[in-house]
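Input:
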Amino acid sequence: MSRRIHVAHYTSEQRLLGAVKGCRDAGLHVLDVRSPYPIHGLDELVGIPRSRLPIACLVGGVTGLGLATWFQYWTSATDWPIDVGGKPFDSLPAFAPVAFEVTILLAGLATVFGLLFRTTRLRAEIPEDELRVTDDRFVLVAVRPDADVSDAALARLWIATEAVHTSEYVEDER
Amino acid sequence: MDSHAFERVIDGDKNLTQVTEDVFSPLEKRGTGRWWTAFLVAASALFLGLVAIGYQVYTGIGTWGLNRTVGWGFDITNFVFWVGIGHAGTLISAVLLLFRQKWRTSINRAAEAMTIFAVMCAGIFPLIHMGRPWLAHWVFPYPNPRGPLWVNWRSPLLWDVFAIGTYFTISALFWYVGLVPDLATARDRARGIRKRILSLFSLGWNGSARSWSRHEIACVLLAGLATPLVVSVHSVVSTDFATAVIPGWHATLFPPYFVIGAVFSGFAMVLTLMLIARKVMHFEDYITPRHIGAMCKILCFTGTIVGLAYMTEFFTAWYSAAPYEQFVFMNRAAGPMAWAFWIMVSCNVIAPQLLWFRKVRTSLAAVFVLALVINVGMWFERFVIIVTSLHRDFLPSAWSAYIPTSIEIATLIGSFGLFFTLFLLFCRFVPMIAAAEIKTVIRDRRASDDAPPAALPVGAAGVDERRAA
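Output:
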């Protein structure tokens, strides 16, 4: 089964948001929006699920805390205890700074690797006509479910929402 | 911060296209004469430092002016100075992000870069202080053929390794994550080999709403992590001193005293760099007198707290009734090294009080001079803490003086060379202003620009109009 993808370009955030609403009213499903800067309130409109990055961050942090605390205890109290100034081998308060730093380090690494894993497409080709997305152009990508929406209605929609450039292509669904 | 001062983050009533053009076009041109002059001066200083480091590593740290009484001198002073410089970068990029201070967008990228470079400069000094830097890996706890003999987790010097290592890693990641959308902009404007290199570093960024959503959450998380981290780093550095039983060092005041001093010195360095950069890179519309004024207020505030910390040290010494403690502080203010103490007080406590006056805050020349004065003063603060506490210890027969050698001075100059070389390369090859973030703060004001465009036909390719122009 294949589906028809429609792409429309806009020159401002306000026009883009208007177009997203227009598409929904017209029965199109908005797949993605590309913009030069983050637009708030778009997550619900486009249907982006809540990010799980905070969970990755928490898991990284807890791992770091546990690992660093255990490792410091094991090396200084179990594996090879050394008397330093008569202090106890299991002097837990002295382990706090390193445990804290490793907690932050692993939480940060987990967050960044989680982000890279979720958002990067290393070999991505940016289509020639979308090069201005990183400059000043706002792009809306929508799909027409079936032939519910007529070509004429679609053309009217693009005119009404002041699109400056439109294109469409057929994508084979895997 | 009063909200009226920052109704506008940038000047010049710019639209998105102009912001892109302003930030990215300097990167696509050849370096100016001024840039090359500055770069050659910085690189020469770096070369001098490399020669000095090579010599002292080959010969040994007997080339320094240290003696049995004064075991820490220029090296640790420089280390603490450079670590402190970094703190303003994190404060601007992380703490001001959490407080939603939009004015930070103009300066956060450069301030964060400054943090990374300052931590790199700081890292040199413990390394060469080891005397045998080729064994530097011994500070890491790895299974080794010496037992395995593990590191001493109770030593603040080891805490430093973890604190500085984490600080550098997290700062670099935070900086890079924030940079990705702007690298993508540079990529989309470039051609050829430049485009390929930028494609690699911009990770296929296409501005998708999903990417932006994740990106923003990651930035907030990293800011949340960096905030306690920045407080911990200089606190840990201060425990290098505070856990010792040396009068003048053994004080519970040290962690907050060091952190606020670090923020103070860091903001002075940010101001120094920004005042130069806005002129050299023509960013007057982005780094406005309002930004300078806001940073001046932070300087005035932190400088006053630093002054309070100095007074607290003296009060505690007097109130402790410990003769050694009292002696150290009397010796600091009136002993043979009193000149260093009074340079510190006049630069860090007295000079910043001028910033109470709006006239001073709005005069860029005055602010620049004050920032330099504070940089000098904060270097002397670390020198005073380290050297005056050591040079006259418990036993008068052991009293000694400390005079740095030319090698130590050359190493200090070399660290400034490294710092400015890296910063100049950064200005030349990386977008210095966070363009995507600037675009979020200007869009609010430019809603009026939403009037329909002059009859652009539907389907007209609007893509290449700029490049054709």
